[in-house]
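User: I'm curious what two different proteins look like when written out as structure tokens. Can you demonstrate?

Assistant: Sure. I'll show them one after the other, since each token string lines up with its own sequence. Here's the first protein:
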Amino acid sequence: MPDKIEKRIEELREKIRENDYKYYVLAEPSISDFEYDKLLKELEKLEAENPQLITPDSPTQRVGKDLTKEFKPVTHKVPMLSLANTYSEEELFDFDRKVRNGLPAGEKIEYVVEPKIDGASVSLNYVNGLLKTAATRGDGTVGEEITANVKTIKSVPLKLKKLKSYKYKLNDFEARGEIFMKIKDFLKLNKEREDLGEKLFANPRNSSAGTLKLQDPKVVAKRPLNIFLYMLISIEEEFEFQFENLKILKELGFNVNPEFKLCKNIDEVLKACRHLEEKRETLEYEIDGAVIKVNSIRQQGILGSIAKSPRWAVAFKFKAKQAFTTINKITWQVGRTGAVTPVAELEPVFLSGSTISRATLHNFDEIKRKDIREGDKVILEKGGDVIPKIVAVVLDERKKDSKPAKPPDNCPVCGARLYKPENEVAYYCENTECPAQIKGRLEHFAARGAMDIEGLGEALIDLFVEKEFLHTYADIFDLKKRQEELIAIERLGEKSVDNLLRSIEESKKQPFEKVLFALGIRYVGSGAARKLADHFLSLDSLMKASEEEISEVHEIGPSISKSVREFFSNDKNLKIIQRLKDHGLNFRAQKKSTVNSFFTNKTFVLTGTLLKFSREEAGEKIIALGGKVSSGVSKKTDYVLAGENAGSKLDKARSLDVQIITEEEFLKFLKEK
């Protein structure tokens, strides 16, 4: 009897796997939903009665019961590199030229063109035919494990089909792909959220990426995630061609995008890219370009990679999508510095994967330049397929009673009089107690790159300001005194409050440069904050410094020095800083010990792509050894470090007779110090 039950269980599993493959991968269902549910329920019943026969690859094990408390780091065996972008046919021809120059003379080169899916990258590790782990891309070297969530995606096989047509064993390999939502599934999900009064997702890509980081696999299972696999990697195997690898992935049971094409030369590549761009509007999912890869894996190895992207592949970005819509109203929003920015409130329109109802108009000069008015029909475009912008007004359809827009005289939030400084395009609210400014300053203070207070986002800040819990960022560190009040707030609860308060305490460990950036001093970005922190080493020293002394810091100009001086001359700011000191925030930096080296007191400009480092990493090494890094070439520049594809800065260095060094020379100087 047990053998008979075991055999039936395996029969059911195989039938369910096959039907999952037909439904979710081939989109060719062969049985009804009712028949499918019957198979699944029979399997669930038999496994419940015989728990010793449950295996990790069973279809019943897709949705785990345990919450994921943390996403463990996963080091990729082979880095997950990002792709360099091209935007024109000329740049594609340039890519082809570089490929030819990087290979031995006379080599035949083929390319594979694939759609560039607008989703979230993932790497799946299979051992002996079973899914072992799934991980996000992360920083390309280390990602986060999301196995429990990825198992809920029915187009991801838990157990692979047998490979018959190819010689590879594939005992241990990675399949890399892109997790996405079909457009219709995304719209349906947003409609369901709207009906429940929940916040809508911005676009399919963001909702896919966000879903993968949810703690509860049962919630993930309800989201309509899908996947396309595009890459096969194994340390044990010597693969030959990308085109063949895509066919292997298909045979193993993976969902591979059917639109890939083998091209004999760059002219065929261009034709395939144009064909994909024409098909773009008819596809069920979002694509923002095409990916071009050298077909030969051997040739890929010869070409290698630069710091963050392979030399053997490139992305060809399609032109931004456009749509027509109407401006219902021009409103004005207030930022943390008091700057008042015009926003176009639009008739909602779906464009590039999201419904757009607002677009920034940047400033009043932009409104005048494009003659944008309320009631106008406009052409909307997504810059880089991300940020919506108004390209132009359809003047032929403008209403006769249309009137030019005017800037407001008073702040739309607090009613204070607005002012416009000379030589600036922005209007400002002078009331520092304006609720919009308070919220903006708090959001900046808590953000990543500043104090990095996890959980204290826009929604909570809005709520806490409205409840008058927060007036300044010093109040954040007094929230622990309101623990019971916070727990009593609907949708917060004890666990959420504990996590928030723990994150607030943890933020006190942030280094001085991050705290200085978090203060939100006008013009002081993260780079300027680091330079000021490294130079003055403490907030007290910076507060005592004159404008002239601040301006003496390398690359700190008069606008920054004046703004810093004004910030520390304000009594309200001084009181807040004293409270932050009392709370134990870090307002001191350690002096970086440097010995005299080749780099000491020399100014470097970095241009082009380096092989061993990113430009930021190279710059940090120069600064650590006593040198300076500048963004522009001048007569004061000592050296220009030129990597691959160096542009106008290299030309300027030559015209000014500034010494140019290669990355090899730079590495030599690093060793010598």
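Here's a second, unrelated protein for contrast:
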Amino acid sequence: MIRVLLVDDEKLALEYLENIISWELYGFEIVGALTDAGQALKLFRKTHPELVISDVRMYGMDGIDFSAAVKEIDPGTHILFLSGYRNFEYVQEAIALGIDDYMLKSDLTEEQFLSKVLRIKEKIEKEKQKKEYTESAIFKELFAGRHEERYYRDLLGEKEYVRLHKKYCYLIVSRRKAPSFVEQFIPDVNEENYVDETAIVNALRTESFRSGISPAAVFPLNTTEELCVLDLTVSTVSENEIYEKVYSLACAVFEKINDEKCTAYNVVFYPKGCSVRQFRQFWEKRRKEDNRFYTKRKAQIAEFGTAPDISSDFPGENLTAGKIEKDLEDGNRDQCERLLEALMIAVEQDDVIGYLWYTKEIFIALHELEDFCRKERRPFALAESCGNYDLTSPEGMIRFVRFKFDEVLTLFDRDTKREISRSIEAAIAYIEENYSDENLSSNSIAKNAGISASWLSTRFKEEVGSGVSDYISRVRVEHAKELLNDDKYMIYEVADRTGFASSQYFSRIFKQLTGLTPNEYRRNRG
């Protein structure tokens, strides 16, 4: 929204200006409409409007003197003069002041007036974009510690240079993501959890004017965190008032960028004024506080720097991945259920250490079982079906772990194991020998094994635990992994050598079974 101040000593003329167009509809916000230029100047100092629309001839302080005072406070302010007289002397003085336009009240139609203010609005927006880009780049460099403020002394005007030393407040908008250790087992788990900078900037611009705060700079700290440097445009407010304003803005931004179905962002605010470089030092000391959001079921609003220190005392440290792996292999459903209950209690009690400890040991155990199943040609992959669960939320994580536990327990349940019949053994051997044949099918496998295709489909599922097509895909993917470890083969060559009809189909099946694309697997091997 472009802030506008209206000034005219004729009350009827002022009311006409207020209603001549639908200001808000066209992106304007009227911060004041006054008949006294002296009072208007006080309001200007308080609200810093980008556009002033003023009568030229007024009692007391006229439009020329008023505009000169405005330009002295902020040379970048845009001014549109209105006058009831064709006085060339006034026009000359106005031009000397650097006003944007001059319009006779006799020509003041809605169409002509709207055309002029929209042209000025376009100019203001271009200037703001350029200024925001420049300031954001400088603030980003200050925060990164590349330069100190004095580096920019000769590059900026006095007013802009002083702004680098000001005390600002801050918002950090962070995208919710799965705990970092999960990436060791599912490398692309946080791939799409990037920050939508445009949505954040738009939310700030919409909400900041209402709170007397403007965004001085917005820039990414990393792929999942955005820093918003906040400039209080309202002066002489108490610490309590500043806190309330920054907190209210944090809440408004939170509501804008999240919705009821998907709370994807946490918003952390810091209301104590300090320079950008000072805040960087504080942020680096306390940034690990992000851990407190891991056990929250929904996104949160919090004050940065107020989280209690997390104790390292944790009674469940004797629970190891090895014990979890053994319970799963032994089919100990009761013990696995108790572990899930402990995980849920950690979430309910906001026990960060407990939640992260349990989850990490579970993932290590499942990863070890995945390696074992791969060697035994058993159908289990840790990353498979992970896309169906929100691993950034504790509830989604628990549902995923429960699904994987059920999958492994069924696979290792001794009570449901059956001996592999000779015909199915023959079918498996035939698949191993002919997996590279693109035309390999249930019919050709059944014919070689001396059984019908329908009987093969039924018995294979019962004895092996997966369908024939799924098993063929798994065998092909395992052989593809071996070829991918050799850099001499292109992706399409690997697809061709392992029986896939196309490299696109190969990539889709490979990611479905491993959680990685062939290129990602090749980059992450070893």
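A detail about the second structure: The chain has four domains: 2-126, 166-303, 321-416, 422-524.
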